[in-house]
Amino acid sequence: MVFRFIRCYILFVLMSWLVLPPHGLAQSPLNLPFFDDFSGTPTTVDTSRRWLPNGGTYVTNQAGMNPPSLNAVTFDGQNGNGAPYNFLLPLAKGLADQLISRPINLSTLTPANQVFLSFYYQVSNNEEMPDTEDSLRVQFLDNTGLWTSVWSVRGGVPMANFIQVLVPVDQARWFHAGFQFRFQSFGRLSGPYDVWHVDYVLLNSGRSAGDVTRRDIACVRPPTSLLRRYTAMPIDQFLVNPSNELNPTLNTTINNLNNVFNVISYNCALSDSLTNTNYGLLPGGTFLINGATNGINLGVNLNPALIPNTLTPKIIKYKFNVLTGDNNTTIPPVDLRINDTITGFTSLQDYYAYDDGTAEYAAGVNQRFGRVAVRYVLSKPDTITAVRINFVRMETSLVGENIVLFVWKRLDNQASSQLYAKSYPVNYPPGRNNFITLTLDTPISLTDTFYVGYQQTSDLRLTVGFDRNNDASNNTFFSLNLGRNWSASEERGALLLRPVFSPVPFQPVTSLPLVPTLENDSLKVYPNPVRDILKISGVEVKSLHWVDMQGRVVLVQDNLQAIDVLYQEVAVPASLPKGLYVVYFTTHDKRRLVRKIIIE
Length: 600
Description:
The protein has 600 residues and is mainly β. It has 4 domains: 9-212, Jelly Rolls (Sandwich), CATH 2.60.120.260; 219-349, Sandwich (Immunoglobulin-like), CATH 2.60.40; 361-501, Jelly Rolls (Sandwich), CATH 2.60.120; 524-599, Macroglobulin (MG2) domain (Immunoglobulin-like). It has helices at 235-238, 242-245, and strands at 4-5, 34-36, 58-60, 72-77, 93-100, 115-123, 135-141, 147-154, 163-169, 181-188, 191-204, 217-219, 232-234, 249-256, 262-272, 277-289, 293-301, 314-323, 341-349, 361-364, 371-377, 382-389, 402-408, 418-425, 436-446, 449-456, 464-467, 476-479, 487-488, 494-495, 497-501, 524-526, 533-537, 541-547, 553-557, 567-571, 579-587, 592-599. Strands 2, 3, 4, 6, 9 and 11 form a 6-stranded antiparallel β-sheet that branches. Strand 28 and strand 29 (487-488) form a beta hairpin. Mean pLDDT is 88; it is low at 1-25 and 504-519.
């Protein structure tokens, strides 16, 4: 399989790594109980009250499978901004992310007070799973400033659910005014590899090894999409037939973490987060939960009439409110109602998307000149102006390399089907789950079905964010022979690749316009016919566009380097079929020259 998740077998490389020393003692130490289920912080841990900063972890509600409550903290081989810890050695392994508590005052307690640390953990299934040599561990800080490992686990075994762990704080050396605990992950350091999740962390006294339940009903999974076909649509496309685009219901799930029954009721509030306009309340229901139960479905019927029929861009917010008895907490003074609401968003602005904005993984083709295409279907004619794409930093930096951005009407290898092709430099967006925008030189008008995609020009793997929670595999395709043949993706998920539209006058475009030519007798190209190496002299060329006899741009070679003054050699791919081509040579000063080249 060539269009696939990024996974490979690696060698262990010993790395020296500076461990963050205990700090934050300038603040007053925390008191028990220490609790965090990460439901109050949607993307990062709470560094103002509970955790030390700069540990590299991030918070998400998209990655873990069947967590105890919404949101979990995730450990991988990237720092908090999404940059790999080691972008020079793709196979390097070592200490990756860590999560360190702020100092906690245990000086008034002793082992007789039965202090336990509990948490849930999971080996990632949605992302790159840790191997058997990778690990997650917990350490305690003693009264001499030394960290001691008290629990650890290795990877390599898939986990369908989170597992709860209880660790006793049972040695006198840990009962001091600056006690801390920390989680550390060890794995590959060149990207989002070897991923672990941790949730529902509780440190408290008066516990036992059997203290595994909480009086807590918690929201868990993100609400389903407002839309049937996409996760986002341009507002004018949506308004062609809103009832046809909307799902009839919105759904989410909750867990009862207690072993007794509870009566709950719920509803869902609809609003526009761009304007803070309330659209109305969708009624839910009331029912009885018998004992500890996971994955309880909550659903509401969607009323299309609540969404205004206007062209104003909108981000529809739908917030499930679950009314429980969690204010009667078993962890006083913690208010467990913090996880009794969960929110979803659907963008109705200027772009299409199949993804939810979170890349659990990365995907791509593993071959130079490999192509990827994603299919979309318009509700009415429209004009594409740009493409947003989430390039993921993995293994080796590809800054300075290029991709060719394509827009097609069909994937049938016909000249009339190729509407746009241009080379763009690869850049990585700042932070995690962000996008770069590739703006089209000329807006392209489309009528119904179209495809957007790219061709990589490097032997190094170009990785694009991949959403495992939404499946667009039947609309995702790849080609390894310059677009002559296409295959459907076999991986369930959606690329973070979004076409952007703008309301400009509609003018049908039937084919890719040929680039202008200039005469220049100083350009020498040989041998012609050519087999493998094309030699260029007389002019320093930046890029080549190969056009076949059907008028299709079948290959773009960019960022060409000179071997000597006004002399270059360019490899002709073996995958390029024999025959006659019109080749456009673009110089560094943006002149364009043309020659007919025969490949034999």
